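[Automated response] Your request has been received and processed.

Submitted sequence:
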Amino acid sequence: MTKLLQKPKALQSGDLVQIVAPASNLKADYLARGVAELTALGFRVKYDPAILDKDRYTAGSDERRARELMDAFTDPEVKAVWAARGGYGVMRLLPMLDENVVGQHPKIFIGYSDLTALQLYLYNRFGWITFHGPMAAKDLAGGDAHYDQITLLNALTKAEPMGEIVATGTEVLHHRGTVSGRLLGGCFSLLTAMMGTPDELDTSDAVLFLEDTGTRPYQLDRMLQQLKLAGKFASVRAIVFGEMSNCVQHVEQGYTLQEVLRDLTAELRVPVLFGLRSGHSERGNLTLPLGVMATLDSQRGRLTIDEAAVR
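Generated structure:
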């Protein structure tokens, strides 16, 4: 499906970013460290004074979190909306957002994990390019070892293609040449959870990025079967798996996750890469622009971003 894309304006030094918490609650010291890191990167930072609220397992009530998002997207001074952390709660907010208003204010949105639900909403309804990358009160709070500063700044501040993503620890599961497509995807659990909703992912001609954490191999198998039965692999160009941290049954399971995923994707006959550190990775979290054209070279095991993500 051809979609009219909306690219946000490039972030510049001194621009104002707003940290939002649409999902689980967060700790004040993590928030403070994330603010300090964003400031060190050259940006001004604001957040809702009630961002530290708690309502069971979310960062305050649904009403607070939905209002926070609406305020951040519509504030003309805010140039980027930056997720504090993931967890759970974003899906509950989607019916509460004013679609007609949000769509008029394209801007940078960055996050991963539970934020995949909001990224699907923004892409499906408005064609927004969003960013699968480090979150303020998690990765940024851990300092520069926990995220990749080069891909972050290249993605958000430069109106040019990022080019080849330099990554260590990747492994080619299936060599099928070089293919190009639109880079789409996110947290595997959320992609399947959004199936059957108005914002489920259209994977046509996609380089499909799938990542997760703490999900057992049989659960990943089940999610892959769900996507397969739903026809989501019918025209996929390539698959890129994340690092998939802690996705084991137990330490003596007798097989690797790579072996499982290699077997499950063999019949698709597309290039498959494993181990790209974006999202749930403890170190070197890469920033990936979702919605732009990308190329996977399975001979070299390299992903290249072919299109600028900002304007």
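Summary generated for your ticket: The radius of gyration is 18 Å. The longest helix spans residues 28-40.
If you did not submit this request, please reply to this message.
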